[in-house]
Structures are given as C-alpha cells and as structure tokens.
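Quick one, probably user error.
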C-alpha cells in the first residue's frame, strides 16, 4: 500500500517483451521504477506493458547501448491523483514508436517523456500523452538527428491550467 518496487532487467544482446509480457512496478502511493537495458536492441510488442504508475507516477527507462528500440506496446508512468511520472527511451541508433504504442505520463500535472535516438532516426506514429488533468501539461521531448511524426502520431501536453512543453528535433 505504498510505493511501487524497483525492477531491473538486463539483456546481453536483445530484450523482447512479447504481446502478453508485463513488467509492473505500480504502487498505491507512487509508482516505482522499471529499467530495461540491452546491449543491441529492445522490442516491445503490441499488447506488452511496462508500468510504474500510482497516485504519483514513477519512472520507466528503456536504454540500448549500440542498437535501436522498436516500441509497439504501452509504457505507463501515470499519476492518478498527483503528477505523472517519467518515461525515458534512449538509443544510439533508431527508435520506432509504432501505431499501437502508447507512452503515458498524464496525471494531475503532466509528467515527462524523453525519447532520444542519439545518432539515428526517431519515427513516431503512436501516442505520447503528458496531459495535466488538474494542472499544467507535461514536458515531451522527441529528440534525434532526424525525427518524423507520421501516420497517426499524437502528442498531447495540454493541461487544465496551461499547456506543457513539446520539443521535436534537437536541443
């Protein structure tokens, strides 16, 4: 009935969370921390879930040392009564956030999403939601050498008491 736990998963090569896969660190008071690291790549299939939600959102971090990320599942760090949490996706190479993907950091105040393809292309066609339901919107950073918002891409940083920040591109 408190804070969510801490989950760390490391892969020597590639990490795959299948359509029925769940990595959850939810807590009643606040979300915990989910960290997924791989040397060569991460794939989150449609229907998969990484979650660190609670009254206050927690943190979900996905990082790849030398490859890319393909995300078609849901990553949630939502705050039910307080601020949304933080989602970080970081890869040296390409990151694809597909049509079915949802990155959720909404809360009373919006949280933060940082998706960074340091040397590659970030292609987003899914949902990034940092809405503030009872305060300002969140901070949504979509970064890479090349960034494309395609097809059904939706990026929300609206808030009841003011919009948040959306940065697409770089610095």
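Nope, works fine. Designed sequence:
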């Amino acid at each position: 009935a408190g804070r969510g736990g801490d989950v760390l998963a490391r892969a020597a090569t590639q990490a795959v969370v299948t359509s029925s896969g769940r990595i959850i660190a939810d807590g009643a008071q606040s979300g915990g921390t989910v960290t997924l690291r791989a040397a060569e790549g991460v794939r989150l299939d449609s229907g998969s879930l990484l979650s660190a939600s609670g009254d206050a959102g927690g943190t979900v971090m996905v990082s790849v040392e030398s490859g890319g990320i393909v995300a078609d599942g849901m990553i949630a760090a939502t705050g039910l009564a307080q601020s949304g949490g933080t989602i970080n996706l970081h890869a040296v190479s390409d990151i694809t956030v597909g049509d079915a993907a949802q990155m959720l950091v909404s809360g009373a105040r919006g949280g933060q999403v940082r998706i960074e393809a340091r040397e590659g292309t970030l292609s987003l066609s899914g949902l990034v939601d940092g809405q503030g339901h009872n305060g300002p919107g969140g901070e949504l950073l979509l970064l890479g050498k090349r960034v494309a918002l395609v097809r059904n891409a939706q990026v929300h940083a609206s808030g009841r008491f003011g919009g948040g920040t959306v940065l697409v591109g770089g610095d």
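The radius of gyration is 15 Å.
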